[in-house]
Design a protein that fits this description.
The protein has 96 residues and is of the alpha+beta class. It has three helices and four strands, in the order βαββααβ. It has one domain: Alpha-Beta Plaits. A four-stranded antiparallel β-sheet has the order 2-3-1-4.
Length: 96
Amino acid sequence: MLTHVVFFKLIDPSPEVAAEARERILAMRGHIPQLRDIEAGVDVVRSERSWDVALIARFDGRADLDAYSVHPAHLALVDWIVPRRERSCVVDYETP
């Protein structure tokens, strides 16, 4: 199992924009065959160390993550979120 974690720092971290980001992330569910599970959340603590939105996706392996990366549903999310993010970071890790 491969877990893909992405954090987004939004240019406009208002509740409306963060909620829309979460909704758009979750909208990928059921549209990408390789995507085994997906979660998304909006930060509620809002500390100086916090990021605004988190995405957690799970795949059977690296090939499935690669297929997800170029899938039209994922690319639509990328097209929407890139102009709205200040920055993002990612961690991909394997679990048994």
